[in-house]
Amino acid sequence: VDDAHHAHHVADAHHAHHAADAHHAHHAADAHHAHHAADAHHAHHAADAHHAHHAADAHHAHHAADAHHAHHAAYAHHAHHAADAHHAHHAADAHHAHHAADAHHAHHAADAHHAHHAADAHHAHHAADAHHAAYAHHAHHASDAHHAADAHHAAYAHHAHHAADAHHAADAHHATDAHHAHHAADAHHAAAHHATDAHHATDAHHAHHAADAHHAAAHHEAATH
Fold first, then answer.
1. How many domains would you assign to the chain?
2. Pairwise CA distance, residues 205 & 149, whole Å
3. 36, 114, 132, 158: least CB-packed within 10 angstroms?
């Protein structure tokens, strides 16, 4: 589907008549189509014998006579051709994907039932499309603005994520400090413990030698007596 302004230029064989530029593609002027003479709102209500298909039969009820609703498909098959500008270009199923284009329904060209929208200027009723295309264009921009807002929120989320990372980094920093402090405390106690042990060991060593010297002296004294 082309952009909103040009989507009704559907390219399939049934719709070759969408070939010209958006404003003029369907304003063909050949003699067979004097019915293009009606006013812009009703041009597609062609009155000549070639266009009896604009009649009201069940297949084509959607050719309602008032310009705003002429091609607002009226039956279940085309219900998804919602007419409001917001949904016009949200093409519905594969059958109608190329209908996306003109805000109010790019003239239902797509399925076999509507081949009568065929390929020539017979369809001056495409004249209202330019008007609706502007709606689609605005709806598209409204949609862009909506996505832009989403992008804005995404940026917040992105920043919030980094803020959370920074927060965790700070936690990790404190955890590291705590870890080091713990080891420092261990080292301190270990040093104090060894210092105490060394002190006692020295005392014990001296006491032992003092005792030995004392006994040795006593022994020697006893021997000389």
1. 1
2. 83
3. 158
Asked whether residue 162 is assigned to any structural domain, the reply reads: no
CB atoms within 10 A of CB 210: 10
What string of DSSP letters covers 31-88?
Answer: GGGGGGGS-TTTTTS--SGGGGGGS--GGGTT--SSTTTTTS--SGGGTTS--STTTT
d(CA 33, CA 47): 9
HSE-CB for 93 with a 13 A CA cutoff? 7
CA distance between the termini of the chain: 130
Residue type, 63: H
d(CA 128, CA 89): 16
153: left (phi over 0), alpha (psi -120 to 50) or beta: alpha
Query: Residues 158-177: pLDDT tens digits?
Result: 666 666 666 556 565 555 66
What's the rounded Cα separation, in Å, for the pair 13 and 115? 10
Q: Is residue 60 part of a domain?
A: yes
Interatomic CA distance for residues 132 and 134, integer angstroms: 5
pLDDT digits (tens, 9 = 90+) for 94-145: 334 444 444 344 444 444 444 444 444 444 444 445 445 555 555 555 555 5
Q: For residue 66, give its domain range.
A: 13-135
CA-wise closest residue to 8 among 69, 92, 98: 98
d(CA 51, CA 37): 14
In a domain, 113, yes or no: yes
